[in-house]
Amino acid sequence: xxxxxxxxxxxxxxxxxxxxxxxxxxxxxxxxxxxxxxxxxxxxxxxxxxxxxxxxxxxxxxxxxxxxxxxxxxxxxxxxxxxxxxxxxxxxxxxxxxxxxxxxxxxxxxxxxxxxxxxxxxxxxxxxxxxxxxxxxxxxxxxxxxxxxxxxxxxxxxxxxxxxxxxxxxxxxxxxxxxxxxxxxxxxxxxxxxxxxxxxxxxxxxxxxxxxxxxxxxxxxxxxxxxxxxxxxxxxxxxxxxxxxxxxxxxxxxxxxxxxxxxxxxxxxxxxxxxxxxxxxxxxxxxxxxxxxxxxxxxxxxxxxxxxxxxxxxxxxxxxxxxxxxxxxxxxxxxxxxxxxxxxxxxxxxxxxxxxxxxxxxxxxxxxxxxxxxxxxxxxxxxxxxxxxxxxxxxxxxxxxxxxxx
Length: 406
Ligand SMILES: Cc1cc2nc3c(=O)[nH]c(=O)nc-3n(C[C@H](O)[C@H](O)[C@H](O)COP(=O)(O)OP(=O)(O)OC[C@H]3O[C@@H](n4cnc5c(N)ncnc54)[C@H](O)[C@@H]3O)c2cc1C
Hints:
The chain has 9 helices and 27 strands. It has helices spanning 13-24, 45-53, 128-140, 151-163, 178-181, 183-195, 288-302, 368-379, 384-389; strands at 2-9, 31-34, 72-75, 80-84, 89-92, 95-104, 108-110, 122-123, 143-147, 166-171, 199-202, 206-210, 214-217, 222-223, 227-230, 234-236, 248-249, 252-255, 260-262, 265-267, 272-276, 281-282, 317-322, 325-331, 338-344, 347-353, 359-365. Helix 1 packs parallel to helix 7 (288-302), helix 2 packs parallel to helix 3 and helix 2 runs parallel beside helix 4 (151-163). GO terms for molecular function: oxidoreductase activity, acting on NAD(P)H.
């Protein structure tokens, strides 16, 4: 049986940064990075943005710093079908592979739209292959329906409209992202989308997509676009290892605040449900920058002794670019009771607090100072009034970051 000092499953940002970090942290021996992806590690954020908008070539952009150290062997296009914790082995096809240490970074998969005919053409977007299919379809399409108003749905609808496709976004929310971000931010996102020509059907459920692409709504209307994209969330990838002995919660692998899930086993990225020592509860995240950071920590911890494990202490956050507008958001992600908006020309900040008036989130548009201030306030559990007293006024001179790899 082949044997490695460290096996990493998944070549997304979490798996890739784990491999590099393990070696840079002094990890020794042979490392295997095994991934179902057929392409070398690439960035997902551009796929809903410049790639779909037709502003850049349909090419996979390598993850920055993903040139793996020589010590790391990479096996692409290869699915791990089982993990056997007791035997300290994974199964790759028919072949068992032994490990001393293991990092699971298998991410998530998009949820296919549940109520559609088996032969209905409902696209999803997670991988580069999905993006190639979507762009090919968009090149032929005059009209599109995007189902779902999360960040993937909003970004994709904006990009399809920029490409010149007559786009309708359908969502059960009363405004895009209103449940998560509140009325103010939702109304801005609404304006950005309609400004690009996206038609919004809000407060409406899609009841069915009939073959090939007829979208039935619960208000009795029917849409017949050339292209349908379902952006209705993801299923974390832990379920595929349900028999492994790993503890799962809603498809995520339960980890402690060192991202450790069992002796010599760590989880990182979208698949992890790690305990956060500052939030004092498990904090699941689905963000690019957090996956990079968690992978880095998992790799570092895998290279370290048991008594030298570091905690995951980052405040989760992401950037999202809808058309030409970039939002930056940091939050614990489990709701808020109070919202305060600080606005100035060409910029705004939305502050979120819980019932005790503690800052639990911040959303900024063209205000990086507040974004950084917000992360500190969330981490330190500052009161919102204290933050507002000393808030840095926004200016419209700050550069809007274009790459959404936060
Ligand atoms: C189109 C798009 C745009 C996005 N834009 C943003 C953004 O602007 N900002 C932001 O913060 N976040 C964004 N995200 C979310 C971000 O990409 C994810 O949070 C991030 O990719 C999670 O990284 P990960 O390494 O945990 O998992 P993934 O990136 O999903 O990687 C998982 C890896 O595991 C492999 N794998 C899965 N199962 C197996 C198996 N059994 N055997 C072997 N390999 C396996 C997969 O092939 C893949 O290589 C976007 C996501 C998408 C899809």
